[in-house]
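Before relying on records like the one below, remember that each one covers exactly one chain. Contacts with other chains, cofactors or solvent are not represented anywhere in the record.
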Amino acid sequence: MMNAHALGILEFPRMLAHVAGRANSGPGAAAVRTLAPRRDREWIEAEHARVGAMRALVASELGWPTEPIPELGEPLRRLRIEGLTWTALELLQGATLIRSSRRVRDALRDPRRPRITVAYLQAYLDQLIDLRPLEDAIGRAISDDGTVRDDASPALRRVRRELRQAEGELVRLLEREMAKLESHHQVSDLSVTMRNGRWVMPMRREARGYVGGIVHDSSGTGATIFVEPPAAVEFGNRVRELEIEELREVERVLRELTEQLHPYHDQLIAAFHALVALDALYARARYAIEASCAPLTFCAPAEGLAIVDGRHPLLLSRGTPVVPFDLTLFEQERTLLVSGPNTGGKTVLLKAIGLLSALAQSGIPVPVGATSRLPVFDDVFADVGDEQSIEASLSTFSAHLKNLAEILRSATPESLVLIDELGSGTDPAEGAALGGSILETLTRRSATTIATTHLGQLKLLATEVEGVVNASLQFDAVQLAPTYRLLKGIPGRSYGLSIARRLQLPEDIIVRAEERLPHGERDLAVLLSDVEAREGALGVREQVMDREQEKLRARLATVTDRELKVREREREAEKSARQEARKYLLDARGQVERAIAEIRAKAGEQAEALEESARAARRAVEEAAAAQGLAVEAVQQRAAREKVRTQVREAVDVATPRPGTPQKAQQPLAEGDRVLVGTLDNKSGQVLSVRGKEARVVVGSLTVTVPLSTLTRSSAPPPPAVKVTYAGSIPEADPLREVDVRGLRVDEVDDQVLQALDAAVRSDMRELRIIHGKGTGALRSRVGEMLKKDTRVAGFRLGAWNEGGAGVTVAELT
């Protein structure tokens, strides 16, 4: 358990109550309120993973089944006792527990839910049970209002029927007895009623001597009495006997149902705890969604911390506007000293950092941005606020010293120390000396320390002690109002005299006060004022540069878009020209065939020589057509490569930060990351392995070892595999004798079949098998139409039984 005093100062219990309000049940909310910071990093990371899985389920289309969880902790513990009987209400709650367990179990086993997400909750899923027969048995025996139904047993049904009949007869008897009374003995505004478990009739006290019987009660004034007359006593006894018999049968039914549950008491307890744990995860997941909490990375305190877009959880819960802050402490930076004027937000910053750490180590998401990294501390110590005590005779300064003494005794290198207004409450010189000594001790101990101060002397500590770094919360010097923006590396000013001047204190008093300031503090104030002015000017200049860069980027994007469109038009024109040329060549092939046929008819004995010339002519035309086809494909490949280069350039623009943009904490490079290699003109590559400060990177077909500092993470996708094409005539060692067009659309068949015919003709093949499948016959019809029009095809037929039958067309070539 961490330091309870510090958790109280940070208002940790209040934050737990806020998160618990998101639970769906009382037991789930109670489970959230019992959470406490833990030091086990493995548990912390696993718990955040479980919350993340629950968050994904809650945000999914299926949502999360918010089933009721009854308050059954104590009854479940008593269920272990042999012979114990649950009440009807407890049995009804037990049925609710079983039903909720079954429904949540079914929801998690829904095949539509991602198994990788559900796997994080598998331990709870394994504890959920499905006892439908017991659930139904309890539902049949006990109604929703917690009473045992008449149909719970035949005996109970009979007893209650007889009881209703006996009560009806008794009431009618009493009404007749009331009617026999003299009018001045009757009570007109009352009727037959029940007193002390017996049915009675009201009457005036004076009628007691005339009626007799047993008086069971009287009115407040004593004027009216409630009497059971002698004639009704026997009927009342019968009613009482039936009531006792009913009670015994009800107890028997409850005992029987409890005995059916008893063998499952361990499973019921496990299911109850699983449902409570899931509800606690549900509450945290809802909070994470509402507060826009990003996933965290955890580390050791020696590795520093990085909070991006951090917000104070309690301020956020109130719905008030919250200014986020960014804070990074590197490994060698152990102490952050925050200075600045009052109401600037220093104490809020201090508490925010402590509360974020405590919540995160309790398994609760915290309102920070992506890439945030928090250490796992072994304890949190805080000296914040005025803790003076009249009873303990402690002044404010003494109370601070008491807390600081405890911190110095207990803080370790793994601890987080928060100190507000260090050195205040006593003489400034002595306070600064004591505060400097305390900070130096904690810094040399390597404890992560964040302190606030107004003392100018302490601001110089960063120049004297390694590991101490200054920071301030920005203050608008013109409006004299805080901006709550954290500036690391720059100490803050108090602005006390500036505020006094703004509040119109006499000018001569302010001037004399300025003269009384020590020269060192006066010079430091001037220097800080100059730094703030320069920082403000730089901020304005950065904004102007950012706007100009955005304009340049927009212009560059427009020019690039126009250039790409021009290139695309050029490629389309070239592709069309190539396709037209190929078409003309194929037409010329037909004319050549016809001319050869005419000459062959007249050639006679020169037919053999003519045939060889014809083959040469065919081959020349086919090669020219194939060359045009390859040229079209080359145009398409150039377009693909140009598209990849454009994507890489865009990815580099995204990955490369603009000048003046603050760098966020990034994950170290790891195996498989895409990077740009600075030593190779920012060529894109992939990390094979990382060793110390060097990495092995593959760039294309080259593997190099380069320093990590020369690599830049790239979000560009890996370049697609580019098919290599060759221009010209390539000898085919093993020409294909068939082409398979199954799975293609009708409009995609033409190119495949034409290329196959080209290759078959160049190889002097006599047949080509075209596999199109049987299917609807659309592909077969299209293949037939193409073969009819192609002059290179002497004829075609469907395949024989051993060639594929109607699923294959065999083309016979000339």
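The first helix runs from residue 4 to 9.
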